[in-house]
Amino acid sequence: MSTLRAIGVGILWTCVGLVFLLGCTPKKPVVLPGPWAGPTPKTETPPSPEPTPKPATSPSTPIKEKPLPQVQEQPLSPTPVVKPPKEPSPQYLASVQLTQEGDRALSKGELDKALGFYEQAVQVDGYNGLAFLGLAKVWLQKNAPKRSLEFAKKAEILLADKPKDLRETYLLQSFLYEMLNQPENAKSYKEKAQRLP
After folding, report:
1. What is the C-alpha separation between 151 and 138, in angstroms, rounded?
2. How far apart are the C-alpha atoms of 38 and 60, rounded to whole Å?
3. What would you measure as the largest C-alpha separation in the chain, in angstroms?
4. Cα–Cα distance between 132 and 90 in angstroms, integer?
5. Could you write out the three-class secondary structure of the chain?
6. pLDDT tens for residues 31-86?
7. Which residue has the higher pLDDT, 27 or 168?
8. Which of 51, 55, 114, 159 meets the CB 3.0–4.6 Å disulfide criterion with 129?
9. C-alpha angle 140-142-145 in degrees, rounded to nearest 5
10. Residue 155 confidence (pLDDT) above 90
């Protein structure tokens, strides 16, 4: 019974201490405004003196022009720079060899053999215009002018920078258009061939 009483007294003193600490902390005093006195008169401030303009000063040192750097003229080389020729790729060389084999077979009248060589040449290098021209010749001899004309058109594109071969292609196309009963196209390609050397 006495322990409960001691605990109650301890709790009571703790509460009193907390009330003392929290309730007795100093507070800021409230400042009350005083009686209203009306607007305060403005005090005039003396005008500030105007800034005096500074006299123009001349640069202490005259501006000097810098000399421009001299450009040295390079003498023109009498001979143009020649780049070494680009080595052909192995595919190109193989395609050219197959085309030559096709030309030999075609000259002997072995059309199927020539056709095989030209087709292999095109498979190895799809930019070999002479192989396409050979295919056009073979299909012409096989009496297939439309198919021959298809290959001749491809050869025309690929042989644009070879005037001699392009001339032969134009003449072949002119002949094929005559076979296909298209005289205007035949005449046009004949004129193109005549303009080439």
Report:
1. 10
2. 61
3. 138
4. 19
5. CHHHHHHHHHHHHHHHHHHHHHHCCCCCCCCCCCCCCCCCCCCCCCCCCCCCCCCCCCCCCCCCCCCCCCCCCCCCCCCCCCCCCCCCCHHHHHHHHHHHHHHHHHHCCCHHHHHHHHHHHHHHCCCCHHHHHHHHHHHHHCCCHHHHHHHHHHHHHHCCCCHHHHHHHHHHHHHHHHHCCCHHHHHHHHHHHHHCC
6. 666 666 666 666 666 666 666 656 555 556 667 777 777 767 666 655 666 666 67
7. 168
8. 159
9. 40
10. yes
Q: 190 CB contacts (<8 Å, ≥6 apart)?
A: 170, 171, 174
Phi, psi of 28 (to 5 degrees): -70, 140
The pLDDT assigned to 162 comes to 92
Length of the chain: 197
Rounded to whole angstroms, the Cα distance separating 145 from 176 reads 6
Tokens 């290959």 correspond to what residue? 151
Q: Is the dihedral of CA 167, 171, 177, 181 positive or negative?
A: positive
Instruction: Specify the residue for token string 């193109």.
Output: 192
d(Cα 183, Cα 190) in Å, to the nearest integer? 10
- Total-model pTM: 0.57
What CA–CA distances, in Å, run from 150 to 19, 155, 169, 184? 110, 9, 12, 18
Confidence check: pLDDT of 97 > 90: yes
